[in-house]
Amino acid sequence: MRGRLAGLIFLLSVASALGDDAGINRIAQNEPASQDAVQTGKSAQRPDAQRPDPQRPDMADLAVGDHWTYDVKDEIAGTIVLTRKFVVTDISGGQIATRVDVVNREQSGSIVYDGHWNILRDGANRYSPNSGTGIQSPLKLNAEWKTTADEVNGNNGNVWKIAVSSRVTGQESVTTKAGTFDTYTIETTQAVRNTKNPSGSAQIMIRTWFSPEVNHWVRRNFLRRVGGLIVSNETIELVEYGRKDAQ
Predict the structure, then answer these.
(1) By CB neighbour count within 10 A (0-12 exposed, 13-18 middle, 19+ buried), where does 143 fall?
(2) d(CA 243, CA 246)
């Protein structure tokens, strides 16, 4: 597997191991910044049960400089393999641009999302209409959504057909190094087919714990199968988040 950030493993990608230059972030990212919040700066509504600690930053109203840092754990090997930081660099026209840095390494990339954390662009990869792996609001128990998408790599012309199905399965309190958060749990399944190489197709199971307070997931697990066999099992977990310091 070779992604556009050399040496990185599958993290948020619907098919990072399906071909060269496949990208590392094809699956992302429930009630995030709503489309209105992205376009007008209005705060997204959080459920009544979500009452953030007043000493913690309120991230519902997305802003440039917002950031989230995650440890990436290889569940098969049982080790933390790297730490990645996502920073919002621009918000314009319903799009959220982020820079993705690998902590303590000179590696970085960029991902563009829509207002519901669906990926629009990830390096050379373009999604039409989007990756389908974001969030649909309002989040509520048993809410479901499905979509199909095309992913095209502008460098090598590879095309993937993606079918995505998601369901909100519950609410949980989750504790990480960043704190304790009330979250929605979302189960997502993906069928990814490489139109040039059907043998490279994959099935991906994603479990997301999304916190409206953090405006992002605090934990996400990706279990990927090729030919019915597990080839990777990784979890990202929030270790730090915040806003840009006031000037």
Answers:
(1) middle
(2) 9
Q: Distance between CA 91 and CA 198 in Å, rounded?
A: 37
pLDDT score, position 150: 96
3-state secondary structure of 36: helix
Would you give the DSSP letter of residue 14?
A: S
Any idea which residue has 């997931």 for tokens?
217
Distances (CA, A) of 95 to 11, 67, 90, 121, 141: 22, 16, 8, 10, 27
Summary count for the chain: helices (H), strands (E): 1, 12
Domains and CATH numbers, the chain: 35-242 (2.40.360)
Lowest mean pLDDT across 20-24, 174-178, 209-213 = 20-24
Question: Among 200, 197, 244, 198, which Cα is nearest to 224's?
Answer: 200
In what helix (H) or strand (E) does residue 70 lie, and over which residues does it extend?
Answer: strand 67-74
- pLDDT tens figures, 107-136: 999 999 999 999 999 989 999 999 999 999
Structure-token pair, residue 239: 């270790």
CA distance 222 to 189: 10
- A 10 A CB-CB count for 193 gives 16
Q: What is the pLDDT of residues 145-157, one digit of tens each?
A: 999 999 999 999 8
Tokens of 10: 């599958």
Neighbouring CB atoms inside 10 A of 183's CB total 24
